[in-house]
Amino acid sequence: MSDFLLDPDVIFLNHGSFGACPKQVFGEYQKWQRELERQPVRFLQRELPGLLSDARRQVAEYLGANPTELVFVPNPTFAANTIARCLPLGPGDEVLVSDQEYGACRFAFQFAGKEKGFRVVEQAIPLPVESNEAIVEAFWQGVTENTKLIFLSHITSTTALTLPVKQICQRAREAGILTMIDGAHAPGQIAVDLHDIGADFYTATCHKWMCAPKGSGIFYVREDKQSMIEPLVVGWGWGPEKTFHRENEFLEHHEWLGTYDPSAYLAVPAAIAWQNEFVTDAVRQRSRDLARSAVELAAQIDGIERVHPDSFSFQMGLIDVTAKQVEADVLKSWLYEAYQIEVPVIRWQNRTFIRVSAHAYTTQQHIEVLIQALQAIDSSHGPKRS
């Protein structure tokens, strides 16, 4: 915990929502902010193009892509809006998503669909899952001759389920269907090789499991698909007087959105360096063991069940507390107020889940306090039932 800025009085089991930035990386972030304010014109007009280029190069190497295939964005919601607005989708077309997609990104497609006339089709992936092959077959039941785009999470936010995106992207390519993968929870939690996955478009946060500052994400577009992607925000890069990347229209259109603070983007290489030095395989395995321990111990409590086999989750674990009949917001507030546990309680498909995240700062004692709290739900001091 000492490497992070987290409040030591809070049991933070919610790395998945917004991440946590190590002090070392946050210091780099503040360094760039000071550089910006020291001489804004020099920094933004003369130095920033080269700095962003170097940062993109390091991120591309980390994620198995070419530097000219990705740009920084504030978050995956921004990238989802870009795709939903610019792809040539119209009446009769369908965008296929699973029933476990992140709400904000799903809303981006639903909003654009109302304007452009295409449909967003949700296909159920039943829980519990049995195998990757079963997931692919269940999801593919939603594909029709009208399916033009598949939008799918790499690791779902709602259910902490790792999906076989490589297999789905390969099958989609064979069928002539475009694919966009929401990898918000993937980089930093699992190894990501974008060329190996084979998606046409991929977006991810850097501020979650990569532990970069808030407001840093990436938007990857295969080189042969870049001509399809128009900028969500039109700025100087779109005009006849080019600014940064005269040789690459994709970067030119998407990298300069007007005056903004790029410090979070420029600190991402520091986050990668921190990951490489401190988040070893042993640290990741320990974090996975803690998350899985939380699930196993919780499942021994009457009325609480596990959802996924261990092979489908990594540093996040899902606990089903539906049978406890406690409203999600009531349970979340009670866990924080009574035990200082910060953890998401999610309502999905008439079921109530606790999603536990574990990282380098998580301890076995943190898990034990969570289990004590879950054991106390049925007591007179527990949360009020719905």
TrEMBL record:
- Transmembrane regions: none
User: Know the name of this protein?
Assistant: Aminotransferase
Q: Which GO terms describe its molecular function?
A: transaminase activity
Biological source species: Blastopirellula marina
Looking at the record, the residues that make up the Aminotransferase class V domain are 41-370
This protein's record includes keyword tRNA processing: no
InterPro entries (UniProt xref): Aminotrans_V_dom, PyrdxlP-dep_Trfase, PyrdxlP-dep_Trfase_major, PyrdxlP-dep_Trfase_small
UniProt superkingdom: Bacteria
Coiled-coil-forming residues are none
Q: Which UniProt keywords apply?
A: Aminotransferase, Pyridoxal phosphate, Transferase
